[in-house]
Amino acid sequence: MTDTPWTGDACSLVDAFRAGERSPLExxxxxxxxxxxxxxxxxxxxxxxxxLREAARTADVSLPFGGVPTGIKELEPxxxxxxxxxxxxxxxxxxxxxxxxxxxxxxxxxxxxxxxTTASEFGGLNVxxxxxxxxxxxxxxxxxxxxxxxxxxxxAVAGGLVSLATGGDGGGSIRIPAGYTGLLGFKGxxxxxxxxxxxxxxxxxxxxxxLARSVRxxxxxxxVCAGTxxxxxxxxxxxxxxxxxxxxxxxxxxxxxVAVVPALGGVTLAPGVEDHLRAEVKELLAxxxxxxxxxxxxxxxxxxxxxxxxxSTLLGELxxxxxxxxxxxxxxxxVGLHLAxxxxxxxxxxxxxxxxxxxxxxxxxxxEEVDFIVAATNPGxxxxxxxxxxxQQPKAVEWLFGEGAGxxxxxxxxxxxxxxxxxxxxxxxxxxxxxxxxxPELVTMGALTIISNIYGNPAVxxxxxxxxxxxxGMQVLAPHHHDELLFDVALAFERHRPWPxxxxxxxx
Length: 508
Hints:
single chain, alpha/beta, Amidase signature (AS) enzymes, eleven-stranded mixed beta sheet, two-stranded antiparallel ribbon, 17 helices, 13 strands, about 15% strand, globular
């Protein structure tokens, strides 16, 4: 009998099941006890224990993740479970069916889904603070953020509660929390894993995946979940040999060209981050035989326009609840909707498309000269868990985002802008540009990662040591469809500089 959950990777847990060293039921009991005792607040729902025990007893350990207790990000529907999308508005909604990635994970993979991990509301922020669930904490240091939107999954895996949890990355939402918690966060080429049955045409940036303790866990997840799906016309074929192919391209890496752009997207990094990253890049080059070259990579920052455009699907989901429901939403989501209604018009959309083409051109030119781009994953180590952005907001912004008079003023001003935009269609774009210049912290969080969602190329956050005792991530970007090569870049670094699989203080 075991008292604590498995602290190795998910693949080694399956090996232990198959060898008879541990049983799925024993692992489940340890997992349930750890979740109950945890102060991380990373699970928003746990399945009925008796149903879980039956699933563990009958688990087929011959399957890739057979019997592995798994967390499901609460933005993904699981039939019969709460489908809240981390919002008070949907606290009583129940999912009618599985998301297709969940279906594959349970049937092809054999995983035992134990519960839902916390996320930001509708996946709209890079933090894990909601009115529904409260604050999720970082297992490396309580009171520090895990990022978002897959923050609960990162906290659960790094915190030693489960060895596998799902995630989604529409602007960095796998890589950002992976960077803050010392995990591997792999975002594949757009379309790599199905988004069915609800594959919105906007924002067309979301790639599903998992928060992983090891490279092979991420590769095995792709074996189970990748592949075409008629419910998602953007889904890509999969050869199903992601794990088996690990290491087969290591020699091919020798001589590959790497551009090191620590502050990709023009982000201001915290003191010490660039020096730390460059030291880690030297280790990466030593592990792979790749060579650094000097290439100027300056894609435009599309964060504001991207966020505005994405509000269309949220507005559709809220339906006639909006705007009466605004006080039930996270303040930043509510203000974002008001901003989008006031600012987003055909002129704004045209500017966004022009910027998108500029981004495509900047990345294409870069990848014509280099094979990989390396950047920081986050501007710095984990900030306080209850902050809404990686920098404390200026008091004026905090006042405007908060309750009471500020919110009234915001709505009045935005209503005026909306009316004025009818006569002066360039006004919203002009105001957005001014806001970006004056309040960069509101639009730069995620700018290090979002470019790979806009462009659609694969990118991975690799654990790269710590600053002040907190993890930092090294992000490596590759051209479209070079996922296999990128897995081997991560594998080479994992072998050269093994990272802790769980936080030193876990379980917490």
